[in-house]
């Protein structure tokens, strides 16, 4: 499906992309929508088309999956690829809706309402009565009056009607006297009687009372506010009054100044009501913590994707986002993780110090909350990629820009060539080469209905990819204007993919082009490089990244880079951007101190500048067969110049000047410290091994020390230690996180290993701190 | 038509509609297994469900800050327990979901118990079955039959299970059943009755071709559950017994204590998902690849990380490494144990003879092979029994069969003779004669056998299944080629049949088949099932000799 795709579409109309309905070309947002649409609109049409559509979708998805595979996992995925759908090819089986359900809620509510009404009315009645009973000044009123008042609240059942206690069945007589419930008026014996303390009564009625006050009926006597106090205060003085007003009943049946008699039914109802009130306002600690925990998690869910998007873009050297904002966002997200950890720890230990241990189920709940929080942190935190350092970012940006320029040039050349090609229908063998490589990408970018008619065409953008990019960019603008963030995100994703593809495509063209040009120049260049070779007896050459090309046999810059990247022939071009992302963040820790170093190092820099112009020119002479405009304000030019001066020749622009120094330092380090057996930058290291200079490191150092920038070198060595410190700190953090994780999962052997590492790292750190101070 | 997804959607819906906040899932014994088949703990934790409680558990504390999601089968005990719960609520709000139809009177009883107005939802969500694979469900019921008819209490349960599958998949099917089985007919009628009674529930959007429910009886094919299996899932079940996706490895010699019980779920184990239907040889290769990958990602053996580069690489790989390590150790253990059993019990040889018995028609060589294996002391009891049974089923009518002497041999060395006695030709399972299909192009001696189900389904799809053997219930019959088929096997399905259905799904365009059974058998559980079934109806079967159902209602 791939071959020959790009050329035929050149200059053709707009390409429609997305989930297009094959029959009416309507653009649907998703697979499912498309299918729904199809079922609705075209279900009458030929079924054949349907199956075709499905298989198409299937193919497209498979292709996408394949294309989007990342390099690191490639092996793993191919080995146990083959989709699993448990005998169910989900593309053949339509998306499933929720199975049948039936609600009984209405019926349930109907029955409950009948019951509840009754219940609620009863409770409310009692509370209103209680309110009335407590609204007068019980303490300073005489018993008879109280009795009359109480009787007015609820009619008392007459004594004759109840010969036996309805609860215990005991017969009433002189000793076993009748008592009336003040809330419902019923009769029971003394044993079955209960009391509502006034405090409780006030509490229960406070709601109604407030409501009554608001309603503006102040005739209800004493406010409830000081209820408890007023009850207590005059207690002592009142004895007399009771005895003076003694009636038979009030002597036998002591007066209730601070409580109200009631039957246990009423008491039950009131207590239940009270419990409900309590629960309504009571928020246990765990809930408070938990709410905060969830809030943090929500924040992370919100911020993390944004950050990852930024980080990806920054690591790819794009300028869409600001490095500082990303950095502060990262800090913020990390803060939330810390909060989550702290909060969940708090939840875990809630109540553990109490004398009465919480119920095992409570503990289990706390453990589970903690466990889920750690799962959350593990899953999300480990996915946070690091940012490039400032220095590195500049470099990445530079590279990206360079690539773009390069691509532009290549594109122009390609255009020119394709014009020529048009006149000569047969392509040269050379021209064929990049096609297969770029094939699959194209199909992914194009829709699976590439023949669809477009409405507008861009004369200047013959490349379908460029056209797509252009389209998406305009969509993006519109979506942004409309403030639809999810769409923006989606479009951005699309755009990035397209750009990646475009980059890859262009670079492959560039290789081809450069190869041609290289042939032309090879003779000339081989002479130059021969000269260089001799000068290269210094160590710079040793760190040439792509040693194959290091010989400088006339393969110029772009080719080198491409060659470097495509060393792994299996690697899909698609993977390149991710690869750069992966390889660059490794360096970040190293750069900033060097940058500082650079700034403070006035004399060498000055000297470097002296020779700057010549080297710069020289460099372009040597390096760039394609006339690419180099920004003279390039923040790197200084360093590059210095590097040139120092190492006499540096041919690879892509090659990081810092690596160089670092390698040196490492080598010295190696000698000083046997523990550091291996070079940290494995890749370079490997290349180094192939280099003859590697075998004579002892000779190299003398060379270095005769270098006019000897001081500088030492300086940078010190600086390098600083760099490492930063790196070390980072590593220590990481390892701590893993240790925590391993501990949780009870993998003791791993914990051991990790803690050992940690110790080692800390030792190294200490040592270095001592050295630097 | 994906039963796993169906249950999963139900459960997620329940959790979602309860809103945010800490939640507890209140279940009974059966719903616990239903939910555990589709959700892992960590998955469900992410949805804020932190506790899992049994409704009948006494040791529950009142936790008013939790919301309760009740997922219960509508049994009497559950309703009673729930009423008690609502009288004294332990949680703040209750969202009640029944896994099947509940009566109005029970709803009323619940409503009247809810004086504190804690119930926020009462619904029926029809996830009343165990979803094993997307196209395979089970009811986890053993001993469903007594003799040749239903165990009285199981028929309603099976009906409930089967109707809940129909409701969860939103299918209102036509029903066909196996005429030779009385149980199949009874079940078909019972299902039809529910569909008629709850016609409102079954009122789904009409599809062009009506779905089909085919009810079969295990006695139709007694061979399949007796064979040794060589695909991963089936083999694990045969040799280690899968129980709700869990296997018990505690008897494996020298087992790590973390691996005493492992979960094999295709939902969240990519390796298992990809290898479920592959044969033992392929799994071996894949395990090797998995190991190699793991070794690569593993932080340089267990040696010290010496340089910063090592450390960086380690830190980079760690998350992947961590993820893999669990999978690797699990599968390596399982496959290791499988291969240990295979060599210890000479399963390759046994299986070869089994396949020969099942698929070929050479009495003399079969007889020799069976005898030879019976005399080998390394062949396990179970395998010997199954060989004799297969021989009995296959050559029972052969003029010169040596069954009596084989039985004697078994009897002399094994206690399993009792089962053998039950399984011999007079038994119920033996009446069918058509289970042997001719040779196909033999590609693998260990997997020659195709279950009878394959032919039945093949004929069904091609429209050639005879109405005389598999009649429709009711006057209507299907004219078009069926599209959505639900097959239910009374007496239990097997993983070999699941594989068959899987392959049919993949090869037959436009056809979707879901397989179900009262349980999922391996040889051992099948023998137990037969024993329990025959043990009760023993006398009747004996006298009826040929296996006519002794009691037909």
UniProtKB/TrEMBL annotation, chain A:
| SMART domains the UniProt entry points to | FYVE
* Annotated GO MF terms: zinc ion binding
Please name the Gene3D superfamilies in this protein's record: Rabenosyn, Rab binding domain, Zinc/RING finger domain, C3HC4 (zinc finger)
Biased amino acid composition, Polar residues: 608-617
Stretches for region Disordered: 223-243, 400-461, 539-719
Q: Which InterPro entries match?
A: Rab4/Rab5_effector (IPR052727), Rbsn_Rab-bd (IPR021565), Rbsn_Rab-bd_sf (IPR036531), Znf_C2H2_type (IPR013087), Znf_FYVE (IPR000306), Znf_FYVE-rel (IPR017455), Znf_FYVE_PHD (IPR011011), Znf_RING/FYVE/PHD (IPR013083)
Q: Which UniProt keywords apply?
A: Coiled coil, Metal-binding, Zinc, Zinc-finger
Residue limits of the C2H2-type domain?
Answer: 19-47
PROSITE patterns with a match to the protein in the record:
ZF_FYVE, ZINC_FINGER_C2H2_1, ZINC_FINGER_C2H2_2
The FYVE-type domain is annotated at 159-271
| Comp. bias intervals (Acidic residues) | 621-632, 655-667, 709-719
Under the heading CDD domains, the entry gives: FYVE_RBNS5
- What stretch or stretches form a coiled coil here? 481-508
Basic and acidic residues bias locations = 539-570, 639-654
Protein name, as recorded: FYVE-type domain-containing protein
* Gene (name only): RBSN
From TrEMBL, chain B:
Q: What is this protein called?
A: Vacuolar protein sorting-associated protein 45
Q: Which family does it belong to?
A: Belongs to the STXBP/unc-18/SEC1 family.
Arranged from A to Z, the UniProt key words for this protein are: Membrane, Protein transport, Transport
Compartments (UniProt record): Endomembrane system
Q: Name one GO cellular component term.
A: cytoplasmic vesicle
Please give the superkingdom of this protein's source. Answer: Eukaryota
One GO term (biological process): protein transport
The UniProt entry, under Gene3D superfamilies, shows: 1.25.40.60, 3.40.50.1910, 3.40.50.2060, Syntaxin Binding Protein 1, Chain A, domain 2
Query: One Pfam match, by short name?
Result: Sec1
Q: Where is this region: Disordered?
A: 532-553
| InterPro entries according to UniProt | Sec-1-like_dom1 (IPR043154), Sec-1-like_dom3a (IPR043127), Sec1-like (IPR001619), Sec1-like_dom2 (IPR027482), Sec1-like_sf (IPR036045)
Question: What is the taxonomic lineage of the source species?
Answer: Eukaryota, Metazoa, Chordata, Craniata, Vertebrata
Q: Does the keyword Calcium apply?
A: no
Task: List the gene name.
Answer: VPS45
UniProt entry tagged with the keyword Iron: no
Q: What is the residue range of the signal peptide feature?
A: none
The way this protein sits in the membrane is described as: Peripheral membrane protein
């Amino acid at each position: 499906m791939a071959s020959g795709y790009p050329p035929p579409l050149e200059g053709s109309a707009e390409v429609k992309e997305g989930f297009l309905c094959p029959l009416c070309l309507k653009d649907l947002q998703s697979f499912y929508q498309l299918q729904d649409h199809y079922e609705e609109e075209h279900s009458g049409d030929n079924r054949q088309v349907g199956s075709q559509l499905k298989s198409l979708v299937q193919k497209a998805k498979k292709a996408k999956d394949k294309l989007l595979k990342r390099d690191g996992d490639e092996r793993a995925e191919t080995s146990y690829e083959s989709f699993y759908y448990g005998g169910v090819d989900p593309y053949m089986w339509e998306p499933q809706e929720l199975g049948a359900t039936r609600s009984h809620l209405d019926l349930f509510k109907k029955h409950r309402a009948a019951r509840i009404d009754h219940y609620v009315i009863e409770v409310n009645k009692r509370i209103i009565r209680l309110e009335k009973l407590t609204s007068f000044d019980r303490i300073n009123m005489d018993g008879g009056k109280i009795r009359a008042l109480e009787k007015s609240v609820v009619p008392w059942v007459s004594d004759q009607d109840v010969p036996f206690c309805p609860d215990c069945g005991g017969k009433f007589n002189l000793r076993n006297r009748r008592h009336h419930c003040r809330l419902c008026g019923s009769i029971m014996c003394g044993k079955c009687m209960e009391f509502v303390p006034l405090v409780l009564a006030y509490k229960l009625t406070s709601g109604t009372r407030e409501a009554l006050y608001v309603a503006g009926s102040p005739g209800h006597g004493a406010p409830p506010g000081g209820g408890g106090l007023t009850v207590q205060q005059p207690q002592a003085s009142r004895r007399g009054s009771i005895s003076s007003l003694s009636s038979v009943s009030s002597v036998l049946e002591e007066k209730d100044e601070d409580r109200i008699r009631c039957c246990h039914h009423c008491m039950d109802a009131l207590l239940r009501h009270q419990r409900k009130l309590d629960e309504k306002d009571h928020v246990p600690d765990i809930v408070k913590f938990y709410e905060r925990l969830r809030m943090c998690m929500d924040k992370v869910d919100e911020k993390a994707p944004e950050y990852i998007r930024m980080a990806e873009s920054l690591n790819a050297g794009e300028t869409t986002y600001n490095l500082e904002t990303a950095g502060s966002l990262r800090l913020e997200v990390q803060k939330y993780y810390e909060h989550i950890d702290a909060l969940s720890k708090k939840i875990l230990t809630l109540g553990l110090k109490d004398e009465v241990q919480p119920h095992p189920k409570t503990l289990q709940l706390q453990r589970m909350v903690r466990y889920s929080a750690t799962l959350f942190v593990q899953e999300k935190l480990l996915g946070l990629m690091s940012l490039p350092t400032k220095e590195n970012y500049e470099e990445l940006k530079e590279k990206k820009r360079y690539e773009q320029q390069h691509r532009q040039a290549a594109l122009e050349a390609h255009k020119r060539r394709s014009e020529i090609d048009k006149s000569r229908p047969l392509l040269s063998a050379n021209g064929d080469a990049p096609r297969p490589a770029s094939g699959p990408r194209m199909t992914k970018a194009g829709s699976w209905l590439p023949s669809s008619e477009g409405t507008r065409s861009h004369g200047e953008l013959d490349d379908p990819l460029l056209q797509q990019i252009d389209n998406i960019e305009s969509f993006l603008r519109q979506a942004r204007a409309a403030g639809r963030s999810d769409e923006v995100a989606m479009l951005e994703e699309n755009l990035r993919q397209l750009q990646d593809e475009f980059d890859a495509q262009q670079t492959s063209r560039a290789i081809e082009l450069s190869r041609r040009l290289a042939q032309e120049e090879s003779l000339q260049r081989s002479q130059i490089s021969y000269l260089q070779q001799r000068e290269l007896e210094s160590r710079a050459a040793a760190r040439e990244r792509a040693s194959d090309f290091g010989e400088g046999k006339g393969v110029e810059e772009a080719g080198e880079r491409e060659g470097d990247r495509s060393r792994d022939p299996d690697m899909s071009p698609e993977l390149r951007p991710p690869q750069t992302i992966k390889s660059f963040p490794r360096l970040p820790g190293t750069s900033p101190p060097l940058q500082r170093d650079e700034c403070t190092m006035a004399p060498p820099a000055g000297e470097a500048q002296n020779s700057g112009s010549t080297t710069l020119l020289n460099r372009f002479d040597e390096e760039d067969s394609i006339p690419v405009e180099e920004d003279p304000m390039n923040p790197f030019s200084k360093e590059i110049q210095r590097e040139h001066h120092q190492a006499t020749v540096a041919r690879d622009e892509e090659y990081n000047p810092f690596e160089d120094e670092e390698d040196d330092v490492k080598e010295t380090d190696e000698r000083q410290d046997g523990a550091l057996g291996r070079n940290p930058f494995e890749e370079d290291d490997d290349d180094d091994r192939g280099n003859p200079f590697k075998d004579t490191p002892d000779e190299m150092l003398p060379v270095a020390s005769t270098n006019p920038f000897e001081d500088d070198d030492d300086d940078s060595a010190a600086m390098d230690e600083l760099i490492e410190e930063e790196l070390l700190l980072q590593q220590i953090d990481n390892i701590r996180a893993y240790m925590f994780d391993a501990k949780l999962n009870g993998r003791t052997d791993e914990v051991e290993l990790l803690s050992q590492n940690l110790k080692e790292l800390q030792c190294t750190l200490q040592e270095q701190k001592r050295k630097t101070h | 038509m994906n039963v796993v997804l169906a249950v999963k959607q139900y459960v997620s819906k329940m959790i979602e509609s309860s809103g945010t906040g800490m939640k507890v899932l209140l279940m009974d014994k059966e719903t616990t297994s239903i939910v555990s088949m589709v959700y892992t703990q960590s998955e469900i934790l992410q949805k804020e469900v932190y506790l899992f409680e049994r409704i009948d558990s006494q040791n529950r504390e009142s936790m008013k800050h939790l919301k309760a999601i009740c997922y219960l089968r509508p049994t009497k005990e559950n309703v009673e327990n729930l009423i008690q719960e609502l009288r004294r609520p332990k949680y703040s709000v209750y969202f009640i979901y029944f896994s099947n139809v509940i009566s109005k009177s029970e709803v009323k009883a619940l409503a009247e118990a809810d004086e504190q107005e804690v119930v926020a939802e009462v619904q029926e969500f029809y996830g009343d079955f165990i979803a094993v694979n997307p196209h395979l469900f089970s009811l986890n019921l053993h001993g469903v039959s007594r003799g040749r008819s239903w165990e009285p209490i199981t028929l309603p349960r099976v009906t409930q299970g089967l109707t809940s599958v129909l409701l969860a998949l939103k299918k209102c099917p036509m029903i066909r059943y196996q005429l030779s089985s009385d149980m199949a007919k009874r079940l078909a009628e019972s299902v039809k009755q529910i569909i008629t009674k709850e016609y409102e529930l079954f009122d789904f959007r009409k599809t062009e071709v009506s779905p089909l429910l085919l009810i079969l009886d295990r006695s139709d094919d007694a061979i399949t559950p007796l064979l040794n299996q060589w695909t991963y899932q089936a083999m694990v079940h045969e040799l280690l017994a899968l129980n709700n996706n869990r296997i018990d490895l505690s008897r494996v010699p020298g087992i790590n204590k973390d691996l005493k019980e492992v979960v094999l779920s295709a939902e969240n184990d990519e390796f298992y998902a990809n290898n479920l239907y592959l044969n033992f040889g392929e799994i071996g290769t894949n395990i090797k690849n998995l190991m190699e990958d793991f070794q690569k990602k593993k932080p340089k053996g267990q040696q010290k990380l010496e340089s910063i580069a090592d450390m960086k690489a380690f830190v980079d790989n760690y998350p992947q490494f961590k993820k893999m390590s669990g999978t690797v150790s699990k599968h390596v253990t399982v496959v290791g144990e499988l291969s240990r059993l295979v060599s210890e019990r000479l399963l390759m040889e046994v299986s070869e003879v089994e396949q020969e018995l099942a698929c070929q028609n050479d009495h003399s060589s079969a007889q020799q092979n069976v005898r030879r294996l019976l005399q080998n002391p390394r062949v396990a009891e179970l395998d010997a029994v199954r060989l004799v049974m297969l021989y009995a089923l296959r050559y029972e009518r052969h003029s010169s069969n040596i069954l009596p002497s084989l039985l004697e041999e078994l009897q002399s060395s094994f206690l399993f003779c009792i089962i053998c006695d039950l399984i011999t030709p007079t038994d119920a399972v033996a009446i069918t004669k058509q289970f042997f299909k001719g040779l196909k192009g033999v590609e693998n001696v260990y997997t020659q056998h195709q279950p009878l189900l394959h032919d039945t389904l093949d004929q069904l799809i091609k429209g050639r299944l005879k109405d005389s053997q598999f009649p429709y219930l009711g006057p209507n019959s299907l004219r078009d080629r069926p599209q959505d088929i639900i097959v239910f096997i009374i007496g239990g399905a097997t993983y070999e049949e699941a594989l068959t259905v899987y392959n049919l799904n993949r090869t037959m365009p436009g056809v979707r088949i879901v397989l179900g059974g009262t349980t999922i058998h391996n040889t051992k559980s099948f023998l137990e099932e037969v024993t329990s079934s025959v043990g009760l109806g023993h006398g009747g079967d004996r006298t009826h000799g040929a296996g006519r159902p002794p009691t037909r209602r």
